[in-house]
Amino acid sequence: MSVNTHLADLASNLVLSDSEKSSISASITTLESRLDAYFGSNITERFQFGSNTRGTILPRKADSNSDIDYMVVFDTSDGQKKPQAYLDRLKKFSETKYSTSEISQSNPTIVLSLNHTKFELVPALNNYGYQIPSPASS
């Protein structure tokens, strides 16, 4: 095998296939719909960021830690100040809407592991710019 062939094979293994892209896209659409239905006006924004939006996400076969970063911006009119409260809200949402999936907390995110991808749900507030609430120790 030539160096060129080896590099071409390596590169092709580091790109999402069309079926992986389709599965991820469907999961994002479902997540968005479920977030809207569950939280309603208690969230002001929700959006992807990170490697998937940049087009640099690696397939899970190449990187088992590959994930979709997804920010959920909460309405703060209820006066809630404790960072854990926002994580708890996302965890309860995940447990309710994804009851058969693996769910864990990894400060300052909730990790939702599906069969074909993993989401890192990041709670945020928008007080003169996005702020990610986390315990002082984080």
UniProtKB/TrEMBL annotation:
InterPro entries: NT_2-5OAS_ClassI-CCAase (IPR006116), NT_sf (IPR043519). It comes from the Bacteria. It holds the Pfam family SMODS. Signal peptide: none annotated. Coiled coil: none annotated. Keywords: Antiviral defense. This is Nucleotidyltransferase.
